[in-house]
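Bench log, entry 3. Co-assembly request; chain sequences pasted below exactly as received.
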Amino acid sequence: MAKVVIDGTEIEVADGITILNAARQLGGHSVPPAMCYYSTLKGSGGKCRVCLVKVAQGSAKDPRPMPKLVASCSTPVADGMVIQNLTSPEVLEARKGVVEFLLINHPLDCPICDQAGECDLQNLAYEHGVGKTRYEEERRKFEKIDIGDKIKLHMTRCILCYRCTMVANQLTDNRVHGVLNRGDASEISTYIEKAVDNDFSGNMIDVCPVGALTDKTFRFKSRVWFTKPMDAHRNCTKCSGKVVLWMKDNEVLRVSARKDQYGEVKEFICNECRYDHKSATDWTIEGPRHIDRHSVIAQNHYEKTDLLTLKKEIERQIEFQKGKPLPEPNRTLAE
Amino acid sequence: MRKLLLEHISEPGIETFDVYRKKGGYASVEKSLKTMTPDQVTEQVKASGLRGRGGAGFPAGMKWSFLDRKSDKPRYLVCNADESEPGTFKDRYLMEKIPHLLIEGMITSSYALGAKTSYIYIRGEYMYIVRILEKAIEEAYAAGFLGKNILGTEYSLDLYVHPGAGAYICGEETALLESLEGKRGNPRLKPPFPAIAGLYASPTVVNNVETIAAVVPIINLSGDEYAKIGLGKSTGTKLISASGHINKSGVYEIELGLPVEEFIYSDQYCGGVWKGRKLKAVVAGGSSVPILPAELILKTAKGEPRLMTYESLSDGGFISGTMLGSGGFIVMDETTSIVKNLYTFARFYHHESCGQCSPCREGTGWMEKILHRLHHGHGRKEDIDILVDVAKKIEGNTICPLGDAAAWPVASAIRHFRSEFEECVNNSMKVKELVH
Amino acid sequence: MELKFSNNTLSLVNKIIKRYPEGKQKSALLPVLHLAQSEFDGWLSPEVMDYVASLLTIKPIEVYEVATFYSMFNLKPVGKNLLEVCRTGPCWLRGAEDMVAHIERKLNIKAGETSADGNFTLKTVECLGSCGSAPMLQCGANYYENLTEEKIDQLIEKLRDKGVRSSYLKSVEINS
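Structure output for the full assembly:
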């Protein structure tokens, strides 16, 4: 076991896990955001850089701080490590920069995007971004295309997290799409027209953090916050059959896998469950699904997010940035 | 001045095995394989103080000592011949003119590291050198310096040349390994480092061409003798690629410690600034390192003569210093537009970003676009501050050093030549007023 | 017509694959793509890439991902002679832009375009490691350095007369 301190709170975690997962065990506001890391996809993470944190003390053995901010999703903890997330102005500044980078070539078309309301980029921008853009150059553009008859690809919205390629590699037996070209011309594509067609290909939609891959059977049917997500299941021979039905009255508008509080699917579902059972009678409905992460949905339908706590936390951070002493473990370090 | 690598460069036929051998070539292989253990070879390299010649300057012996020797997987030595840093062409020169020096270094180094198969990853544009190297390798096989039981010893080694296909990023060692595995050149997340899990997840050392070549004189002379050459911690000799506005561009082998002023103005080296013009600025270690104005490249901020060493060039940090880097020495005369030069660099990094991590993918394009506008008379008054800020937000926050490499030239050009950027903005403003 | 390497090239491909450990034949991808581009008209069509994928027993998308990453692979047909002029800092300092402008005027094309007779494609590229002999251009395996307008004129005439397709491997056979 390793004892680590994250934003002033100590927690004991298993050796070798990442800083991000240690923070997730702790929960609350000290959990760095993540746009590309996905715990159920091997090899994910490290790319988006929104989860950067400061390692103020490397370990008990070697207390030197790490020279650069590190990606918390891919950096393992060490016993005695002291980590700063929200308590480091440097981290907040870098993260603000990363959010800006992710947005400069994004079309900001939330008003017409199906992902709006459940979009990780929207939430991230809401929490860490600035309300105004400094970017006045031309934005990157791509044509929107169908990849298969059920999935729409809006490449302009993609943040190149690579998750969908990992789904194709790890869940299906024949990946036909990938990341092509390089630099900011990189794009998700099949290169030549090819249908992504596989029993589990629909999971690409669920792992996409933005509106780059959307479910064509749901497109423009409803804003997500007007739907009622319900946990439901059915007997399925291909997958667990455990899903979320996104309902309006008694109509099933969309079927998706169940995401946890970090937006991750732990049990992927098959395309049959996703696309072919759009009648409520096909399902055993368990009850309303608690959505506590997605700001827009949560604010309108379910438990109130603790805005007061959030506000207090932000005020506390501002105080730190004004030069008040850092929390306990770091003060010890300084002395 | 003493030459260790290019001593026989003008010898006719030195590119052939026979002439190279006659000039004392392959002595380090004989010495190491017949009289030294692999660890003793590594110890000599450690003692030599040799620092990586690719740009980072990390002590080579230390890098070797990190190699996981307990693993039961095969170990690899991969030579980084993906020379692509603007201003740098020394490896090309060395491989083209005296290919056996690299082959010899590869054999001696592979022996030290216990590698049974080694690769030279060379940038694809140098395809004509692939043939030169492969011919040299063939000769070395024929002479018993490669293949099974080299010189009758237990040691066997196979050596192959692997061409890239146009990607600066493959000079980053983990991107190079990805590329060698037939993939896109996306740098890997570290840890694990190549010394633990490199090529095919096996323990791997990646060294620059010049670093590997320098192992030859180190073994021939002994590490201690090599360490006496140069100055302080900057031991040995270094190949400098000199380009830009000088009278005599080319590759020069210098003993580390040579005064920068002598390098620029002596007829033995650059022969002074061309067309009788004045020196304006120098990028001393390849396009990635901070640019310095004439007064700071010739003398440190403390007023001491600037020397061609790792330490002297970085004296003053990034405020008033730079880095030796790859030794790509780009000279600019008084007529040079710093803004335009920077624009070409920014375009380069934008073109070469692999696109994997967001700060580099998005930030390099943003910087290029702003500089393009500035240079073309469409500047805005906020542009300079945005450039500085974007560079700052890329630096240190990316997966690999390409982000830093793109940010440093921008930050340093504005630090030392801010007025030129302001002039671009002011001119743009004037044009705007005239139009309206 | 079925796409296939010549027997010579096929044996070269097999030789290249053997440089890498068993099961790591994907490592041969870049060298084999170079051979493919050289043998099949100077560019990599989807059919050619699919063929390479089948030779190396990898998925076609793995080839597309790689071919589109590296700047030396042409994904569209190019003229018989691909003139690649370096324009990064050190070459710019020594007049690379004038050289590009001269070629543009001479061939009546812009960078990125192919001349009407299909003989030349002009491409501007980033640093080719010829900074000390700038300005320069690469055509196939050859570097043409310390360029002047006169030298370019001579070169263009020479290449026009030659009438063979430039190739990075021309006169350069890997492992031959």
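Chain C touches chain B through 48 residues (CB under 8 Å). Helices of chain C lie at 7-17, 29-39, 46-55, 60-67, 89-93, 96-107, 149-162.
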